[in-house]
Amino acid sequence: MAKKHNSDSTPETINAQPRLHQHAREIQAYGTVSHNLPLELEEPVRLEMTEQMNQLLADTMTLRDLYKKSHWQVAGPTFYQLHLLYDKHHDEQDELVDTIAERIQLLGGISIAMAADVAETTQIERPPRGREEVPVQLSRLLDAHQIIIGQCRTLAQRASDLGDDGTNDLVVSDVLRTNELQTWFLSEHLVNMPLVKAKEPSVSDAA
Questions:
Q1: Which long-range contacts (CB under 8 A, 24 or more apart) does 79-86 make?
Q2: How far apart are CA 103 and CA 99, in angstroms?
Q3: Claim: this prediction has a pTM higher than 0.90
Q4: How far apart are CA 200 and CA 207, in angstroms?
Q5: Which of 38, 100, 180, 194 could in theory staple to 57 by disulfide, Cβ–Cβ 3.0 to 4.6 A?
Q6: Which residues, including other chains, have CB under 8 Å from residue 61's CB and lie 6 or more apart?
Q7: Architecture of domain 39-189 in CATH?
Q8: How far apart are CA 29 and CA 109, in angstroms?
Q9: Residue 12 has pLDDT above 90, yes or no
Q10: What digits encode the pLDDT tens for the residues 152-193?
């Protein structure tokens, strides 16, 4: 059997047996930032930005999952269109999740990750487990977008004030613009328009 010698010359046995059920202390606590990268951003700035970005991350993960729930459970005459639209928006939100999480890690922080932690952190209202009507689905999604858009505007301004241009650019260019566009697409499905026969103009309309 091969022997490996570490720096203090103590032999270590190497074999093909997996080492299962390992436990150890955390290598970095949640809510802290490391000092690995020369980013020219002071620790208090990175602490504040990672805290706010984790809130944005938790809400984005919740919105992403709300889209998937809606995708699975949508029903009615608009099923096909919304089934596809919800899935498209889900995939776009999933890309944002990675983008936000990686920015948090880049700043030296720890990204929130597990469903239970997200559920405790998000500001978005929890939907019921059962199926809801399309107008309710759309309204829930729009309410969630409104929360995230409000966060984006506040966070982007704060990042700019603190000199964190990278976070400002990410929040505006990626998160805010994606959420604004998705809000537009959803809102148009709540306009009460005739489907097959246009409304006849009334006398008052002509005047």
A1: 82/134, 82/137, 82/189, 85/185
A2: 6
A3: no
A4: 14
A5: 100
A6: 97, 112, 118, 122
A7: Up-down Bundle (1.20)
A8: 9
A9: no
A10: 999 999 999 999 999 999 999 999 999 999 999 999 999 988
Structure tokens at 41: 């951003």
Question: What is the rounded average pLDDT for all residues in the chain?
Answer: 92
Contact yes or no for 138/189 (Cβ under 8 A):
yes
Which amino acid, one-letter code, is at 64? R
**Residue showing tokens 């004030």:** 161
- Give me 162's structure tokens: 């603190």
The predicted pLDDT at position 8 comes to 58
Copy the structure tokens of residue 39.
């980013």
Q: pLDDT by residue (tens digit) across 79-136?
A: 999 999 999 999 999 999 999 999 999 999 999 999 999 999 999 999 999 999 999 9
Let me know: does 148 contact 60? Beta carbons within 8 Å. Answer: yes
The residue type at 81: Q
Q: Are 139 and 77 in contact (CB under 8 A)?
A: no
For the chain, give every domain's residue range.
Answer: 39-189
